[in-house]
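Contributing: when you submit paired examples, paste them exactly as shown. First protein:
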Amino acid sequence: MKKHNQEFRDLIYVHLNTGSQYVMSYGIEFYEFAISLPEPLNHLLLLKHRFDDGDFNMHTSLEYVPKERVGQLIKDDVYSYGDFCWLDFDELDALDELSGQEIAELLYLGHLKQHLKRPFYSHLGNQFVYLAHDDGWFNKIYYRNTNDFYYMLGNATALKLSHLKMEKTLLGMRKKRTYPPVTKELLFSLSSYIKEGVLFSLKDAVHSRSRIEIPIWVLGDYANMDDMYDHYQQVRRQRSDAKLIYDKKQKEWQVLAN
């Protein structure tokens, strides 16, 4: 299995399965996901992990992270865990209300990264189910509300660009430039592409004095990210299907179809 750790910061692949309400992705790591959501994460029930500071729930025999400790998890090296799977929940007492069938469904989710039934539980109030292997390389995330996905993607794209594009000051030092989020409405205009499986390549972005052009290729539906990456290598010299453009003067994003 290949690892493209160095690529995580400059490639984003997303494929939205609207019927099952999940997104397959490559390139967005847990900390980027967490800080790019419209609201902070609540308590997290851990299905697969290596976090050292979780609490134990007797009813489920699973560990969880209370809301006040989620920040520690965000800072941890979750990529090194291998498998990293969790879902959020509203109230600590709700874990004791899970039935044996529901606990079995959660164990199945963590083990096979597939659902037996729609993985949203009313008494947990979970908004997400996060299933990752080598976090950032293979991520499968269920969204109760797909608007949260588009919001997160717009923030994460701007965040990645600000980390990549450093500017020189008059003293020769380098500073990080910040960019406004790509609006969810603008990304929604690309929803037909995203439902097919699309790659945004900050790696191949063209920078000029007036704007930044990020090429977008429609690659298709991939669960094996080695195959997705190989496909990207084949098409990256070809004309892109669209471009995500940042106008530096207007400080606005736009989409241009090719």
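Second protein:
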Amino acid sequence: MSFLRKTTVLGALALTATAVSPAVAGATTTHGGAPIVIAADNGAEGMCTLNSVVKSGDDVYGVTAGHCLDPEEFGGQPVKVTTESGELLADAEDIAAGGHLLDGGANYLEPNAGLNDFGWFRLDDSVDPDLNGISSTADTGIPLLDPLLTGQRIETGAPVPVTQNLVGGIVCKDGAKTGRTCGPVISVNTNSQEVFAAIPAIAGDSGSPLYVLGPDGKTHVVGALSNGSPVLFNVFDGTQNHLHRVGA
């Protein structure tokens, strides 16, 4: 299965590319916008998108949407996270070293309902992640469309909070299925840090980094895709307000 939380509403550019940082030969790599596959102890599997990579002390963590790591979504306990091709990103011990939050039901018609949809897991020592880049390869099932949506690597700065200044501006997301798509911010909840944006996304894009272009020329993550529908409004939970939990 692929994740994108459904709501009761029918809601869900190019940026300057930089050269890809060289990876350690033979190492497993990952980055914001990459597909991740979560496997549970009952054999169930789900695809989501890595939001970002965060270093805490001597460890490095992958961040995604909380529902991607929620046992109730699988009917079993998540025990492994891999790349789409099956390379190990995190085992059961690494997942246990992380955690997830999942509560609230914010959607476009109920923007004040609040939402926490944030998950994190420690990356295996064998992984050589890109700490400062976002990129994506679209896999919509439409061969003529995918090259147009595939996003080349862009350099990232520190995540930033959700503010009222975002409303009316253009933001972008990189997802495992729909790649790089952009659209306007419809509204925000600055108290509980949600962003409501008209950006195409489908199941498998959950966790996608939502970002803005900063005055420093870098992109800055403001949220992670939680729920919505493919063609109208999608809801992103703020990222920065949860990062203090990673590695805690």
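If you have annotations for the second protein, write them as plain sentences, like these:
Residues 29 and 203 are 23 Å apart (CA to CA).
DSSP finds three helices and 16 strands in the chain.
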